């Protein structure tokens, strides 16, 4: 089911959208998050879905002069590179030439912006190459407005548009520094993310089922506690490593090897995560759906395992058939389903079954289906099923942060800019024609 306007909760953050403004002939600073996996040897794109995700907004900005900003990785990492490759790939995807500018806010960048013609587009270099944006010399939140990046670029543009949802849990001049300087507008991708994830957190249609899996147990448990605390969820399905943790916290001995895997994965966060797991198992067991059976790896082969056969010396790599059978009516009968995190070690073909079956259930669900980013979102894209769920998030950490109720600086900046500039759109000549 598509996320229609009537389903958006009344307390969703109010931000300016592209429907609120007329940008024909205007100069637009457009912040993206096109940070992409690159081949370690050739630098070739392994996945260009983040570039594809901004094409809708760029289509809406076809009559504007667009200054594209983005980052790739961070200093010190092997895939930290300039944006020339991103510019070239985006040009081909868009079917329009985009000029690459090997500068962020210096004379070369300012000259290129000034020379832009209506409908023209340039792609500035990796913003994290500028010391104000990232690293030891990164400016503080209070200093962003007066940074060189914001001061120089804001003088060259009329509005700021952002689709950098994947970085919306961070502060930096190009992410949050323009809120007081000009109208800051959510692009199509950002607006869709805010609407879908706000729905999942604030006022989902009931019954609401959240499926939480993967290996990031601390994040999944924070999401679970946030949804329970808000009183919006009916069932929380725990699968993957987080499901194994919850079985352990509920009194099942999953075996020393599986326990050590969880401890090693969690590191210093284990004790805090274990406290959350015990709290969920003790205080909210009526809301939890835990695995009914499992699949273990024995000599490279999949072998079913009943809970009564625990503990096991073998690694638990998937949920079992009975678990999936019991899960199906919950998902198909839900009016809203949130899924974040695989149910299995799905990179191994023998153990992909549980994760793929959950994906199929979400695609078959008649209610709203929201996939919460990261590995889960990548799997949806890889299997060509993005069009079969209501929303497939482009954010990993940012989606988890929003679902956990964490501060979201980019969205907060959009809200502040909305409060300041919405009453001024007419005076600025930005109101859409009647």
Molecular structure report:
- With 434 residues, this protein is α/β, with parallel strands linked by helices.
- It has two domains: 206 residues, Phosphoglycerate kinase, N-terminal domain (Rossmann fold, 3-Layer(aba) Sandwich); 161 residues, Phosphoglycerate kinase, N-terminal domain (Rossmann fold, 3-Layer(aba) Sandwich).
- The chain is built from 16 helices and 16 strands.
- A seven-stranded parallel β-sheet has the order 1-7-6-2-3-5-4, with helices on both faces.
- Strand 4, helix 4 and strand 5 form a beta-alpha-beta unit.
- Helix 8 runs parallel beside helix 11 and helix 8 packs parallel to helix 15.
- The chain is elongated and about 70 Å long.
- It starts with 15 loop residues before the first strand and ends in a 13-residue tail after the last helix.
- The model has no long low-confidence stretch (mean pLDDT 95).
